[in-house]
Structures are given as C-alpha cells and as structure tokens.
C-alpha cells in the first residue's frame, strides 16, 4: 500500500513532489521494475527482488507520494492502551510505528516521492506528477487502500473535537485520543462501529471492542457495549463468525447487524445508522468508528480499477486484467482475502516466482492459495487466530487450537511483531506462517 495511507502531516504532503534518486540512476529513466506504493507490499517486494538477485537494486524504482512508512498494526496497540504513552508526541517519535522510507529501502533503489499521473500500458511508461516519465519492463502496483470518512457526516469534525468522545484508530493520531477516552470513561454507552468492506485489517474494529470491554470490566464500570456492522456476519468464514458471536455473547456485547453508519451528532452524542431503510439513533458516551476504504485518487479513472476500491487482477498470478507485465498485490488487488500483512507475506513469494519465470522466458507456474491470517484480541492479553483461504474457508495450518484465546499469541503480537516487521518483514525475510522459511517452488 502507499505509505501515505495514514498521514500524520495531512494532505499537504501530496503536493511536495520530492524526488530522491541515487547516483547510479541520475541519468536513467528506464527500469526493469517500477513499484507503485511503498507500503508493506511494495517494500517487501522490492527487498525480495534484490535478496533473490533477480534484479540489481539500481534497476528498481519505487514510487510513493509520501516520505514516511507506517506500521499500521501498531495503532491497535496504542488505541487499546497496550503500549505505554508518555505524551502526545509518542507516535510521531516512535520508530516502532514510523520510519523514513529512504531509511528502510536499499540505498541503490530509486525513490520518487510523487503521485502517479498516468500509466501508459501500450508503451510501458508511467508518468509522474512532476512530469517525469519512467519506462519499465515490469510494473508492480501496490497502492493499497486509503481511509475515507466522507460518507460519515460530521466524523472528521467529531474526531478533531477534544470534547466529543468519538475516535478512530484509522484517523491520523486518533489512536491516542481513543486511549485517553478509554482511561477517562466513567460508564454509559460504549459503541463500536465497523463499515462496508473492504477494510484495512478488517478485524481491528472488533479487536478494539474486545480490548476496551475487558478494560471497562476490570475497572468495575457500569456500561452497555454494542458492536454495529452493516453486514449480517462478523467474519466472512462462517465458523469464525459464529465464534466471534459466541465471544460477544459471553462478554455481554450486543451485536447489531445490518446497520450502516451515516452520521455523528456531536451535540446530542448520537450516531445515526441506517437499518433496512429505517433511521436508528444510538447514544454514546464513548465511540470508535471505522471509515470506508478506497484506492488513492490517482487510480480512480484507470481502466483496470473497480468501484474505486480495487484493481482487477488474475487472483492466482496477480497479473492485471488484459496485461502481460503489470501486476498488483496487497490491499488494492481485488482479492477476497484479509487486508493484512500475513496475506502479503503469502502473495509476494508467488509474485517473485512468476516474475522470475517471465524474466527467464518461461511460463508462470506459481499460484496464490488465498491464505491470510487475522489475529483478534479477545481481551487485553489474549488473542485468537483466524486463518482463512480467499476469505470463505478456514485454513487451520498455524496452530491446531488457534480459536482458543491464548496469552502467547498476544505476547507475540504486542512485543515481537513490531520488531519482526521492521527487521524482517519489510526486508523480505519473513514469510508469515512459515516464519523465516520461504515457500519452495519446483525447479
């Protein structure tokens, strides 16, 4: 995904148009590989291409309009109070959360901090917002999806208002606000809202619900807690959905299905929902909301874009529709999989294998199995693991009893995964359920 999906500095950064090039490519606008997006998918792909010695680093260009890369999952820990915060600058100065893109990629990779203006599929060219033109042999699209609160009236105003008890881990530094609201909550109505898919880390909204519920319970507060979803289920895999419903029932969390969030009334402290063409008003004393997600504006009018939130591809080879050298992986791809780092760690080796075959004048032979993993906090210190294939069937390969809440899972996510992400994952050295062992393909 584009590293810009979570902007600390705001939309002004889009217009900076900063260009970083190394001395190896100062007079070279032709690359073997151009990667759009310096998020988890883009960085992992770049690193693995170099690590496997498929291309030299100087033959790779990376495009992203922002200068900073974020470890997005860290916000769940911050919003839930699972990472200590000394002050409001906690996130801005935290290297477990953000780092400069230039500092985490190979020094010989060319980095262009620009927007994409046009992609010329016929002549293998990509035009940037600074009027620079890059030629490519292979184009890899990893733009990700970006949060949009446009369809929730008054949401931005409410989240920016320190006197309104609405927040979202998907909005800038609002994870800190959520933790502060959690700490000051004295009881009443606690409302958690998810939105229409696709959602970046779709399990995060219910994670926040479980985490804060456990915190309120341990404080002995008198409160009512509800979880609202526009869907009929809590997870795309029926078995996992039933498990989450059971966990909610055990924790006295009332689940409201088929409720689409429309508006926030900060004066009356109400959230307005649509439920089967009826308008429902829900009072809140604390609320966590989830936005809709779309592709970056750069991609809305491209011929391979679907409904402004995905790029149409072959789900096994990742080739973009009607192309033979343009690929797309990660959150932007129209794959029925979880929008998680674990899914990316399963996608990238397949992509690398197929590009390697093409580069050797061979047919592609690797296919994506649809694997993704969603770790869901069920309390402050326990997690269940939801493994799936193409979001429709379970894939219990990680642990035999992953649906039982376990402390060891939570310890791994809280303390180990941030370190693994920066030291291994974005460096092409971490392969999800396979840990440090890359998948093997036929010779």
Explained architecture:
By secondary structure, the protein is of the alpha/beta class. The chain folds into two domains: 3-71 and 98-145 and 296-371 and 416-434, FAD/NAD(P)-binding domain, CATH 3.50.50.60; 148-293, FAD/NAD(P)-binding domain (3-Layer(bba) Sandwich), CATH 3.50.50.60. Helix content is 23%, strand content 25%. The protein is built from nine helices and 25 strands. It has helices at residues 40-51, 74-79, 101-104, 155-160, 174-184, 204-218, 238-250, 341-359, 407-423, and strands spanning 18-20, 30-36, 60-63, 68-70, 98-100, 110-113, 116-120, 125-128, 133-141, 146-148, 166-167, 188-193, 223-228, 253-256, 260-265, 270-275, 278-283, 286-288, 292-294, 305-306, 310-311, 326-328, 371-377, 383-389, 393-394. Strands 1, 2, 3, 6, 7, 8, 9 and 22 form an eight-stranded mixed β-sheet that branches. A five-stranded parallel β-sheet has the order 11-18-12-13-14. Strands 15-16-17 form a three-stranded antiparallel β-sheet, with no helix packed on it. It starts with 17 loop residues before the first strand and ends in a 20-residue tail after the last helix.
